[in-house]
Amino acid sequence: MLDFGGQYSQLIARRVRECGVFSELLPHTVPLDEIRARFPRGLILSGGPASVYSDGAPRLPRELLELGIPVLGICYGMQAMVRELGGRVEAAAVGEFGRSSLTVHEHGRLLAGTPGAQSCWMSHRDTVFEPPPGFTALASSAESPVAAVEDRARDLYGIQFHPEVVHTPCGNAILRTFLDDVCGCDMAWTPESVAEEQIARIRDQVGAERVICGLSGGVDSSVAALLTHRAVGDQLTCVFVDHGLMRKNEGDQVVAAFRDTFHVPLVAVDAEDRFLRRLRGVTEPERKRKIIGEEFIRVFEEQAAALGNPRFLVQGTLYSDVIESGGGHGAATIKSHHNVGGLPEDLGFALVEPLRALFKDEVREVGGALGLPDRLVWRQPFPGPGLAIRVVGGEVTKERLELLRDADFVLQDEIRSAGLYRELWQSFCVLPADLRTVGVQGDERSYGYVVVIRAVTSDDAMTADWARLPYDLLERIASRMINEIPQVNRVVLDVTSKPPGTIEWE
Ligand code: XMP
Questions:
Q1: What is the CATH number of domain 392-493?
Q2: CATH 3.30.230.10 fits domain 2-182
Q3: Which atom of ligand 1 is nearest to the CA of 502?
């Protein structure tokens, strides 16, 4: 798939994979040779925000349409193809955004087996008015005289609507037709098959050398570690650094799963004291992050040295990270601070990255297939600096962390019991460190801590909406926190979305 900057590009790539066909998303600027070197069975051109007529609009090189493989253009991809081959694309008087109805005049190859009238999702202003010579117009919609085209002789296809979104009910069938009937793909790819491939590749890469892996307790590093263990067994040692900023019992769960269930050699480092010592007196968020990041690297280096400095390091880099760094989206800058608690690339290890081809949900599938417990497979994201960035506006002390851990435990427990854990992107507590409020408990005045509940829904953490938790659930959470944690006498709910708020308070 070539990405012309459309908001749904990643989704198209995932839909293709869901059909059982491996797909890669590359920037539209990728050199032709790199495409050829991959021997693709077909090419999909994504949508994009530009008008084919605007200055600097991404061009579609003619050679791409002459590779001898089928090409499907979607939205901008179709318009660019039509224009390049001599059809007529123009700005329509009105755009077409949202649900629309499609009338099929001729099913051709691409729309075979779909109804003559169907709904579809549109998002465009430019419109195709005439197909290029050699093409057949297959369908139209209210605002698009030509909404689908094909040229069977050259195996070129185009659709104006978005087949990847749920509002196009026949979208999957159309993608399937393209992949199966047109491209002749064998539709047998699964995330597990990538896992098998990766296991073989790790074996090749690593040979008889030793490998080290930093386990964080998150699903990415867990799955990466398990795949590596499958590949090279006890040549791998995992290092789990407990910085004392984890949630309740989380460290134990990681150690139990890896050491006891999977028998992966694991060093668990209790580094709480040294992290807390370095955080003493520190309140500024970015300083906290810096200190925790540095200390983490130091502990990790010590462990690597104690293991005789293994040559290889396992990293849980995902496909979305690869796309983001290659695609040059703005995402990179927003995310830079999010690497805190990970490892920089210049530590001198050779990297083993078995998840580079997988999306997050595929990593979860592989984790499940490898037998990773649901608790680890479905864990919500947790920041590297952990609870340190959730004790806000004052010093991070062991007592405050304990209190926050207890409150957080109540929150997770109730959210899981209510069956909401997987629906939420994140749910956690924040503790304003230096704030006390007055309350009345058992006829006596109390002066205690305030716990903030933060729960959000999100797809990718770039934007987020505050979660509308049911009132009775909130009430249960609040009364449990106040009853079970003596220092707490007030619970409040954060109702800020992102933007303007961020997910974390620091
Ligand atoms: P914000 O607060 O920027 O967070 O909306 C977006 C996502 O990133 C996580 N986050 C971090 N993750 N180290 C991390 O590994 C960090 O320093 C960090 N800060 C925020 C946050 O939990 C959310 O998922």
A1: 3.30.300.10
A2: no
A3: 5
